[in-house]
Design a protein that fits this description.
By secondary structure, the chain is mostly helical. It contains eight helices and no strands.
């Protein structure tokens, strides 16, 4: 993987998804804020871009066990998003809420930030459920129909919402809302670091919360920077 500091964070992650972990560790947003050059993102965050480049360069010396989405059709991307990321959210949200609610009730007096974390999480995940339904029922079928029209040599299918960019913009706005909510949670939790007096449930809750956020970042990246861009380009070609 040849990295140029003027390349956007989103494109770097497209080349090698393992780069996402490096960006997350350095506090760099590769999903909602991924369309800025690496040099600019590092400057805004007070990071030395050469140090980050060294970390990225080290990936080349490791075996590549990441998923490459190059060449995937939109239908394949959608299937992956629904079966992997949407399914993960459906499975994880209730369990994680139970953990957060428990530690907020037990430890909230000494750690009032836990109550804020639980409440922000509940609001964000309620919105996330609605968001996924709109994607699965409206946006994703529309994107697939554009792809089918292209493959079959047919004209652009008519949509009640006009251009595919219109619902995409709405989804991107909702992604920004989710990103902001979980940034607040990361700040309140000291980047998912439990305090010294944390019980096992407390520690598990924060570890699971960090896992959830990392998966959400990958999920949003696939949509914002790959699927949605592909859909816009495909519509333009018709």
């Amino acid at each position: 993987m040849q990295i140029n500091k003027q390349e956007t964070i989103a494109n770097i992650v497209k080349q090698d998804f393992r780069a996402a972990q490096i960006f997350s560790a350095n506090g760099l947003d590769f999903c909602c804020g991924g369309k800025v050059p690496l040099s600019e993102a590092c400057e805004k965050s007070g990071l030395n871009v050469e140090n980050v480049l060294e970390e990225l360069d080290a990936l080349k010396k490791q075996g590549d066990h990441s998923i490459s989405y190059e060449g995937w059709t939109n239908a394949q991307l959608i299937k992956h998003i629904v079966e992997v990321h949407h399914a993960y959210i459906e499975d994880t949200v209730p369990y994680l809420f139970q953990l957060l609610d428990k530690i907020a009730n037990v430890h909230g007096e000494r750690h009032p930030e836990l109550i804020q974390i639980r409440d922000i999480y509940e609001e964000a995940t309620d919105a996330l459920y609605d968001h996924m339904k709109k994607e699965e029922m409206i946006l994703f079928p529309a994107i697939e129909s554009i792809e089918q029209a292209k493959l079959n040599g047919k004209p652009m299918p008519p949509f009640p919402f006009g251009s595919i960019s219109n619902p995409i913009q709405g989804m991107e706005g909702e992604h920004d809302f989710e990103g902001d909510a979980f940034k607040q949670i990361a700040a309140l939790s000291s980047n998912f670091t439990p305090p010294e007096d944390a019980c096992n449930t407390y520690q598990v809750a924060f570890a699971k919360l960090e896992e959830f956020v990392n998966d959400l970042h990958r999920h949003i990246h696939l949509e914002n920077n790959i699927l949605f861009e592909n859909a816009r380009l495909l519509e333009q070609s018709l």
